[in-house]
Amino acid sequence: MRSKPLLLAVLALVATAVVGLSLASRRRPTSGLVDGHLRPCPTSPNCASSVCVDGAHGADPLPIYGDPQSEFERLVGLTQSLPRTELLQLKEDYAHFEVCTRILRFRSDLELHLDAPEHLIQLRSASRVGHSDFGSNHATLERLRALFQGRE
């Protein structure tokens, strides 16, 4: 019978930690371009980016086959159609979105950067808190890729 109060205490502690992380993820980090490029990922595995070349964080950029500006605007529109996704900042060659998880309400930052001379859109998705994202940032970028390429 003594294990029941201990179990309840552990569950309360876990619930408090999850709520605390969810609330901490509401603060907006510094975003935007640095020297005309997306910021690199941190060393933690909760980020995916097309500007990172290592295997843990790396993702492919989106190739553009039409007018770069029109394709960037189309991708921005597709991104806005994703559930629990809010546009925070939009410039001619840069967009910053906040993506909120369904159940625990954790927030991630999704950034798009138009590299018109190279006919590419660079992508970055990063969790605001925690160490691991269980692959959710890579999944976000792949879902966006599928939408952009008409596969979803």
Question: Would you give an account of this structure?
Answer:
By secondary structure, the chain is an alpha+beta fold. It has one domain: Alpha-D-Glucose-1,6-Bisphosphate, Chain A, domain 4. 32% of the residues lie in helices and 23% in strands. It has helices spanning 3-24, 68-80, 136-148; strands spanning 47-49, 62-63, 85-90, 94-100, 107-115, 120-127. Strands 1, 2, 3, 4, 5 and 6 form a 6-stranded antiparallel sheet that branches. A hairpin with a 4-residue loop joins strand 5 (107-115) and strand 6. The protein starts with a helix and ends with a helix.
How would you characterize the largest beta sheet?
Answer: 6 strands, antiparallel
The secondary-structure element order is HEEHEEEEH
**Which CATH-level-2 architecture?**
2-Layer Sandwich
CATH top level class name: Alpha Beta
Total beta-strand segments: 6
CATH topology: Alpha-D-Glucose-1,6-Bisphosphate, Chain A, domain 4
Q: What does the average pLDDT come to?
A: 84
Question: What descriptive keywords fit this protein?
Answer:
32% helix, Alpha-D-Glucose-1,6-Bisphosphate, Chain A, domain 4, elongated, 6 strands, 6-stranded antiparallel sheet
